[in-house]
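residues and backbone:
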Amino acid sequence: MAEIELKVENIKNSENQSEAYGLILAEKNGNRMMPIMIGWSEARSLVLAMNKVAPRRPTPHDLFVQLSKTCGCELNSVLIYKQDEGIFYSVLRMLTSEGNFFEIDSRTSDAVTIALLNRVPIFVESDIFDKVSYVNPSMELEIDSVINEEITSPEDFFAQQISEMTNSELDSMLEGAIESEDFELASKIHEEKKKRGID
């Protein structure tokens, strides 16, 4: 089966779902794009990887990269090989130090994040891409009714998401940020709580 190489084009907000985002993958040597719906935490990881923002502590994706290297393996590429009822299925194509290949099943958002960290190519089966892709640059298709607000930086992304959270959600995220030693995110949450007049 023929494969098409993709690049990460952008991440956009969902107009209809507050915690849904669209990962936009573009044809590397063409003008078509495909959207993949992802959640808040997946979008956050991708924004960090896209903008080369290093978290204070290793993320699970960083841990996978470090563990693979320690075990004498490296990521060769990522393949999106199946799409069923809106869910995309991917594999990490690994290469051992002896030159042997093997594959690891992965969520597509994780696979793309790890690919960005390793700077390796992302591929999709051509038959899948033909079914779900749309043509750039007009963007005047159904995708605009689903994901429409462009995220240009991690700061914008975090600020917007935080501003839309309830007070209880802020408290929950603050606890997680402190636990993971993400003090920059914790600071932003404190600022939002201060704006609302809550401690």
